[in-house]
Every structure is written in structure tokens, then in C-alpha cells.
Give the backbone structure.
Amino acid sequence: MAMNDMLSLLRVAYYGLMAGTFAFLLLWEDGAPLVAGMPSRRRHVLRNLAMFVCVVAVADGLVGGWLLDIPSRLTITPPGLLTPLPLAIQLIVAFVVMDLSTYAFHRLLHAQRWLWLMHSVHHSDAYLDVSSSIRHHPVEVALDVALKLVLYLLLGLPLWMEAARTLLINPLSMAQHANIAYPPWIERPLRWLLVTPQMHRVHHIPNEAETNSNFGQCFSFWDRMFGTYRAADPALPPRFGLANLGGETFQSIAGMLLTPVRAWRLRTL
Ligand SMILES: [Zn+2]
């Protein structure tokens, strides 16, 4: 099989798996919701999906096609620091270092006001479900992609490693945000290694102590290591979102895109 045919096949399999996981979790949310009776659920999902489409388009434009066209660039291996190391070591480093950088970037998104104004689009979602995982501001996504590209270039790791990483990370992120009452026996053992849905939901509770905790994306040990781990408080009801950004002004597609500008004026955010 020619290389181009193989990459096209991989591209279809990749996007098929992502769409399939999204649909599977949507159905699971129907069967075992954590918070029952979510109002306007269909509109909520459609808005977040529409936001995702325009975010990908805008972010892709900002980073010069590196987001959408990545499948055709998978074979690129930039020469860098780790290029001489065996492939298995490179793969482990890619998973660990890129996850640490995601943790650090997420902490920065909460610490710097102008970054927080962009990241608040993700946190202003009052009803967490699988679609919340793809609700981000385009500038945040563009910065994230650019940062990862720079790291891959510096480390000299082949770009297909990022595709392999997101093959696991994206479904995990969808599961973390899904409105599903997962059985506790799934959560408990996994939490020692991975950021589980219950652990990530703590991060979306609008109390300062809760929001400024559990920044990890894949591995839970970064939060334990750097003192930002917070266990779920059973006394806290599963309420999410940001008090100041709950209104319709911040929930429509245009509203989400304009949130950083509009929220700038809110001194309390
Ligand atoms: Zn956050």
C-alpha cells in the first residue's frame, strides 16, 4: 500500500474513533446520567459542537494548518535533543513530557488573567457533558498546538507520537467531562495513575479551592507531586460553571467567542 493511501486510511480510522467515542458516551449519558434532567441538552451539545468546528477552523488558520493537516505530516521527524534515543524511550518521553507540559500550561491558563479569560470559555459551561470536552476558545487551542509543536521540534520526536498520544488523550478527556455516573470500582483503582472523571469534575466546581486544583490531563501524579491534588468532597453538589458567566450572553456561539473581551470588564472573574 502506498504511503498516501495508508495515511488516508489512518486519518479515517482516527476521526472515526473520535466520533464513535463521542456518540458512545452521549448514549451512555442517556442511560446513566450523573445529573439527571439537564435542560436543553440537545442545544447544549449542538452549540459546543458548532463552537468546536469554528475553533478548529480558526485555530488551524492561526497555527498555519498544523492542526487539520497533521495526518499528512506524521512522518516528519525533526532533529533534536532526543533523536538518537531508541524509539521505545522516545515514546515514553513523549507521553510523560507532553503530559507534564499540558499540566504546566493548564496551571498557567488559571494563573495569568488574559489566559484565564480565554480558558473561562471552557469553565463557563454550567452543564458538564461529553461536549464540554471540546468547548475551548480558538486562541487557547492555537497556543496549545503551537506550544506542543515547539516542544516536539526541540525534543526531536516524530510527530506521529502526538497522534498516538491523542488517540488515548481525546477519548479520556471526553470520558472525564461526560455526564455519566460511572461505577465507583472503575474510578478508585484508576485514580492512582490517571485523571479520572470524578477527579476532573472537582476542577469544574466553581469554588476557588476546587477550580485551582486537579490540573492534570492524563496522569494524576503531577497534581500529587506539585500539591494541587484535591479529592472530591461528597458534601459538594455536582454544580459546575462560573457564576458571572452563566447567562445566555456567554453561552451562545458568538457569546463564547467574545467571552474574553466581554469578561475582561468583570472585575470579579
Ligand atoms: Zn481549567
Residues 66 and 154 are 16 Å apart (CA to CA).
